[in-house]
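[stage:ingest] chain + small molecule (S-adenosylmethionine)
[stage:ingest] validated
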Amino acid sequence: MTTLTIAPLAPLLDRLFAEADASEVEVEAAAAALSTEERARLMQSKTGYRDLYGRLKDAPLAVSRETAALLYMLARSSRARTIVEFGTSFGISTLHLAAALRDNGGGHLITSEFEPSKVAKARDHLTAGGLIDLIEIREGDALQTLSVDLPDTIDLVLLDGAKSLYPEILNLVESRLRPGAIVVADNADFSPDYLARVRSPANGYMSTPFAEDVEISMRMG
Ligand SMILES: C[S@@+](CC[C@H](N)C(=O)[O-])C[C@H]1O[C@@H](n2cnc3c(N)ncnc32)[C@H](O)[C@@H]1O
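[stage:predict] done
[stage:export] tokens:
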């Protein structure tokens, strides 16, 4: 038994993933209305991300069930105690990471989100899941909120906010990554600069794509 597979978290996640599946249809329809170029331009813009995510503020945009399970397993197997997340949304990935912290014996998860209604929803879900005591939700642009007061060492990072900012967010956390720290980046194919950086061994990472949409990188010692 793990925190993930028992109440209150298991039924909560079933409900949240079902809602995420239902809303994905609308998000995909909206995306399909854009040309490939326009979609790539929006996802890669370093200035338009606030507007883009503002338009998506009612959508969970959650990681897949498979990526969520992977996050839990990576946090457990690395015995993570300190986790930083870029992009909370409704808190589905946060719930998995926090469950791993609980099952690791405790810890601290800093997560960042700029949409106030999403912060409120995530807080409700983390409270309902019995995990809020492990979480610090930083409201505002992560470029600011993650630029101060980070733990001395970070065991695991999830990058899942605006894809264009992955290099900048990595800059904020990099000096605190412990040797062996894991960085998971969702949909990193929209951030070619980020991929080039973590895939170049000279930059101190070992990195591999995983499944269709995830890049997993490890900070070398
Ligand atoms: C893909 S969703 C995150 C999904 C979440 N990780 C999950 O799996 O449940 C991305 C979220 O990041 C937020 N976001 C994007 N850029 C941000 C930024 N610069 N600062 C804070 N939040 C940001 C968006 O509002 C959106 O809710």
